[in-house]
Amino acid sequence: MKDVLDELAAARRTMGTATLPAGDAYTVELRRCYDAPVDEVWNAITDPERLGRWLRPVTGNLRLGGSFELDGGEHGEILHCDPPRRLRVSWLFGPEADEWPGTSEVEVLLTPSPAGGTEFELVHAAAVGEPMFPTYGPGSGGVGWDLHLLTLARFLADGEVLDHEGLEESPEGREFIRRSAAAWGHAHLAAGGEPEQVAAAVTATTEFYAPSTSSHAEKESTT
Length: 223
Prior knowledge:
Blueprint: H1 2-9, E1 12-20, E2 23-34, H2 38-46, H3 48-54, E3 58-60, E4 67-70, E5 74-82, E6 86-90, E7 92-93, E8 104-112, E9 118-127, H4 133-136, H5 139-158, H6 164-169, H7 171-190, H8 195-209, H9 213-221
Helix pairs in contact: 2-3, 5-7, 5-8, 7-8
């Protein structure tokens, strides 16, 4: 448990603002250091075989101007690629999202750290007014990215490939999710969120990613 929670504490989380082709946007931002050189981290986030081992299997024309699709339904276009420092992609989910291009982008920036590792920064910008935010706040995407950066840390350390579903259903994974949702609540408050709205968003996010025992049992009984 301690190593999982140490990974959660390794990241700094903030909310900010940005401008997308579709208009004003809010951002969820994660910054942390990985004990691996920049080239190694870049390869892990751009090589299709390695990307599929910690994020999700990916297909597509993986070059500047090309498109990609993850097996979870996330898809988009490669908007900027400056090896080994900067990658920016559009980030849509589900076929309906294609009707609203320019509403979501993910950018990753890599910088060598003095100790020989890599300073990793991920910024996910989503258009103001997107439907998930009023209910879940920044945790709607932030908790998912926390989980993915945990699996990236394990992969970079020893090549371990984590079972995402198994992690999320394990006691340590559920505790990680609860603390991640709370951490995004703190970031939301720091960005000016109303306390009651933030508290409700943290509760909703936690229940979405780590449903209570009764909710989980009810879901299982209907599948």
